[in-house]
Design a protein that fits this description.
This protein is an alpha+beta fold and 155 residues long. It is built from two helices and eight strands. The protein has one domain: Lipocalin (Beta Barrel), CATH 2.40.128. It starts with a helix and ends with a helix.
């Protein structure tokens, strides 16, 4: 009986360690990100809410809105799905569907890297001409999301 308890204890410790590592990786990319991206309309503020779906998968809501340097940008939001690579930190989010769409706007794909501490996420917008880079951090933003965007982010 003692031998069984020892083996069970080691197996439990390994499972907890593996679960803890998966949780650490999810917290590296999950949660709320804020920052800016650049497209044809100019510099645009963005809030990205990322929810892990397991095995490095994710779903997200991107809420975009005007900046003080570009106040004419309309507000909107769309859903994305993606995959995070634990080894390289690469995180790709592909457009899925509109939630609130301003007239004449297109969704974007965000392809980049999350730093080892999970404090910065930056890269390129790859699917639209006229778009270039994005840069996000964990700093909170005081602009509230439209109710439909918030509802989609909390599902």
């Amino acid at each position: 009986m003692m031998r069984f308890a020892a083996v069970f204890g080691v197996a439990s410790a390994l499972w907890v360690a593996a679960s803890g590592n998966a949780f650490a990786q999810e917290t590296r990319y999950a949660g709320e990100w804020t920052g800016k991206y650049v497209c044809g309309q100019g510099v645009t503020a963005i809030r990205l809410v990322v929810v892990p779906t397991g095995a490095g998968g994710a779903r997200a809501v991107a809420h975009f809105f005007p900046t003080s340097e570009n106040p004419r940008v309309p507000e909107g939001c769309f859903a994305l799905t993606g995959l995070f690579d634990q080894v390289t930190g690469e995180f790709g989010l592909r457009q899925s569907n509109w939630i609130v769409r301003p007239r004449g706007y297109s969704m974007v794909d965000l392809i980049g890297t999350v730093d080892a501490k999970g404090a910065a996420f930056g890269g390129r917008i790859t699917n639209l001409k006229g778009c270039s880079t994005f840069s996000l951090t964990r700093e909170p933003v005081s602009v509230s999301m439209p109710p439909r965007c918030m509802a989609a982010a909390s599902q």
